[in-house]
């Protein structure tokens, strides 16, 4: 599977300015080359190089390789449509090849600009990290909302999905970061201890308000994020391993539906919990894809207060955050555990409907009128 990754460049002010100038010069050069190409009615790279290579280098202060890239960009654009002269915006993308861009492990890139080579740190997520060692070929330098990115295409091998014999429902939360439908829970207690310790330190530093205290404060939040990230890695690894070992699919609530409820819960806790919550989800998803565990996203509506025994649906079934007690049949238990049971059940139900739909389709050929759109997305498809 081919995938495009956007790698954010962590530029200094000077680096940003120099990349921007490079982009402007490069695209101006492209427009100049386009004039010549259009006049002479040629999209041939070699021919264009012969005519204008030295002129362009000199006029736009571009390096040899960037000049060749500019000619190539014009040639490709002109080839696509020979009836019009291609035009290039000042911040059009620059294609970099290995001669003018190299990766410094997964920490930085060395990239050619108009003011020489620059080493620029990159910001990559964990999801990207597992794929980045597969970078081949070219990268496009792109400017978006005043931030520079490198767009790279990578080939991602996926483990083929196994046929699940069951479903592991996972309820993600704030206090218990994750609880599954067996009742196993993965707590965030460790994180809270660190956070509370840091909170005191932070409050003091905020009071001080000096430059050095601000710097210290930043460092502290960085450390806290990294710690939280590590915990998320541990938990997601455990969940995916459990699903794989027991041949179960993983069921999660659909992200779109739960953003709202998380915002509400967020008021009780620090902001860091919110991004960590989404990070844990994405860690579970990509780790599952890599080892072939199917992931099913289900509609989150009511999963926290529907009774899994009698199906009674009432908010009152959940008198408080930690406990569930059905007002109709009296079934009770840990609220997170029951939410996970509901999530697993919903995934099974969805699967059955898909199977049923496929059977109908196979037997009758009916598809259009009653075609069944699963209310879920299956990650990785
Ligand atoms: Zn009940």
Describe this structure in words.
With 381 residues, the protein is α+β, with helices and mostly antiparallel strands. The chain folds into two domains: 2-155, no CATH class; 166-363, Nucleotidyltransferase, domain 5 (2-Layer Sandwich). The protein is 49% helix and 21% strand. It has a seven-stranded antiparallel β-sheet with strand order 2-6-7-1-5-4-3, with helices on both faces. A hairpin with a 2-residue loop joins β6 (135-144) and β7. It starts with a strand and ends in a 17-residue tail after the last helix. The structure holds zinc ion (ZN). Zinc ion binds at residues 307, 309-310, 312, 326, 328-329, 331.
Keywords, separated by commas or semicolons:
381 residues; alpha+beta; Nucleotidyltransferase, domain 5; 7-stranded antiparallel sheet; 5-stranded mixed sheet; extended; binds zinc ion
In short:
The chain is α+β, with helices and mostly antiparallel strands. The protein is 49% helix and 21% strand.
**Can you name the CATH architecture of the largest domain?**
2-Layer Sandwich
Helical content band = 40-55%
Number-wise, the strands total 14
Question: Any ligands, ions or cofactors bound here, and which?
Answer: zinc ion
Number of helices: 9
Largest sheet: 7 strands, antiparallel
Note the topology.
Elements: E1 2-9, H1 13-40, H2 45-60, H3 64-80, E2 94-96, E3 101-104, E4 108-113, E5 116-123, H4 126-132, E6 135-144, E7 147-155, E8 166-172, E9 176-180, E10 185-187, H5 189-208, H6 211-245, E11 248-253, H7 255-266, H8 271-291, E12 295-298, E13 323-325, E14 332-334, H9 335-364
Helix pairs in contact: 1-2, 1-3, 2-3, 5-6, 6-8, 7-8
Bound molecules: zinc ion.
The site of zinc ion (ZN) has 8 residues, from loops.
